[in-house]
């Protein structure tokens, strides 16, 4: 066997090992129901849950608790996933900026069966201002009026 063949086989083996190790760590998109089932089975795997913040009839957010003067690293809210199941989400970090303006929210974490909530490790936001059907809002420059 030539040296180049041995090196090529070594590179392929390393690539396969990297792919297998990253697939094992990859989290999946699920609903709160499935996240609860996985937690009951004893898995500690992180999962992505996509949903939106729960609002009442007047458009106010339901169950949002953030008191930075008491604990700046504790934020909780109620989220409804894409399958219309709701759960309390606890995030032990400060409240993300623009969460209130976000259309969709992705929480990454695990279901906490003891406290009956989803323990988020990360919150990802989809802000409507970034995705306005390719419309750019511009302001016309104001014309200066000079009096002579």
Describe the structure.
The protein has one domain (27-130): OB fold (Dihydrolipoamide Acetyltransferase, E2P). It has two helices and seven strands. Helix content is 22%, strand content 30%. The mean pLDDT is 83. It starts with a helix and ends in a 22-residue tail after the last strand. With 148 residues, it is an alpha+beta fold. The longest helix is centred in the N-terminal third of the chain and has 23 residues, at 3-25. Strands 2-4-5-7-6 form a five-stranded mixed barrel. A hairpin with a 4-residue loop joins strand 4 and strand 5 (86-91). The protein is elongated. This is Cytochrome c-type biogenesis protein CcmE. It holds the Pfam family CcmE.
Write out key terms for the chains shown:
five-stranded mixed barrel, alpha+beta, CcmE, membrane, OB fold (Dihydrolipoamide Acetyltransferase, E2P), 148 residues, elongated
Summarize the structure.
Pfam families: CcmE. The protein is an alpha+beta fold and 148 residues long.
């Amino acid at each position: 066997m030539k040296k180049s063949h041995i090196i090529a086989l070594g590179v392929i083996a390393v690539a396969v090992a990297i792919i297998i190790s990253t697939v094992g760590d990859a989290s999946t998109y699920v609903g709160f129901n499935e996240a609860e089932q996985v937690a009951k089975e004893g898995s500690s795997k992180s999962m992505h849950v996509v949903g939106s913040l729960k609002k009442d009839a007047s458009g106010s957010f339901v169950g949002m608790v953030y008191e930075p003067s008491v604990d700046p690293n504790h934020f909780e809210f109620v989220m409804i996933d894409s399958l219309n199941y709701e759960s309390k989400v606890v995030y032990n970090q400060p409240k993300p900026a623009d969460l209130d303006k976000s259309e969709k929210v992705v929480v990454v974490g695990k279901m906490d069966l003891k406290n009956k909530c989803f323990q988020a490790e990360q919150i990802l936001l989809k802000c409507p201002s970034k995705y306005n059907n390719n419309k750019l809002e511009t302001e016309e420059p104001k014309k200066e009026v000079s009096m002579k």
